[in-house]
Amino acid sequence: MVGEAGGLARAAVVGTGLIGGSVLLRLRAAGLDVAGWDPEPAVRRRLRDRGVAVSDTVEEAVAGRDVVFVCGPLPTLPAMLARVAAATDDGCVLTDVGSTKAEVATAATAQGLGHRFVPGHPMAGADRAGLGAAGAQLLDGAA
Question: In the sheet where 93-96 sits, what is the strand order?
C-alpha cells in the first residue's frame, strides 16, 4: 500500500475484536502507521499496553488516514461506516470485515460512498473471540 508521496499507507482499524484486532496487529507488524479504536475503554487500555497507537474517539483514530477497516458486529457496520466517512476525506478507502456484504454495501451506496468503499472479509477465524484471541498470524494464508 502506498500513501502520500510514495510512503506507506496510514491505516486505522475501528473495532478490535478477533478479526479487527488481528488486522491491526498485522498492519503494525508490517510497519504501517496504524491507529486503532474500540468502543470499550478496557480494550483500548489493553491495546495501549501492547504498544499500539489507540485513540479515544473514532474521529481521532481515522483522521488523515489513507485506509480504514471498519470492524465490529454486522448490525453496527452501516452506522459506523457513516461515522468514519464523515471524519475522513474523500480519498480515504473504506473497507469492512463483515461476514456478509448486502447490508453494508447497500448502506455504503446509499451514503454516496460507493466510489471509496471496498467490501471485504478475510477468510480467517478462531474458536475464541475478542482482542485476547487476535494475532497478526491469524491472517497467514487467509484469502
Answer: 33-37, 10-14, 67-70, 93-96, 117-118
The Cα–Cα gap between 140 and 19 comes to 12
Whole-angstrom Cα distance, residue 96 to residue 105?
10
The CATH number assigned to the domain with range 9-139 reads 3.40.50.720
Distance CA 16, CA 126 (A): 14
Rounded Cα distance between 1 and 39, Å, is 27
Cell of 73: 458486529
| Distances, alpha carbon 125 to alpha carbons 22, 130, 139, in Å | 10, 11, 8
Structure confidence by residue, pLDDT tens digits, 71-98? 999 999 999 999 999 999 999 999 998 8
pTM of the model: 0.88
- Asked whether residue 4 carries a pLDDT value surpassing 60, the answer given is no
- Rounded Cα gap, residues 63 and 1, in angstroms: 18
User: Which residue ranges make up each domain of the chain?
Assistant: 9-139
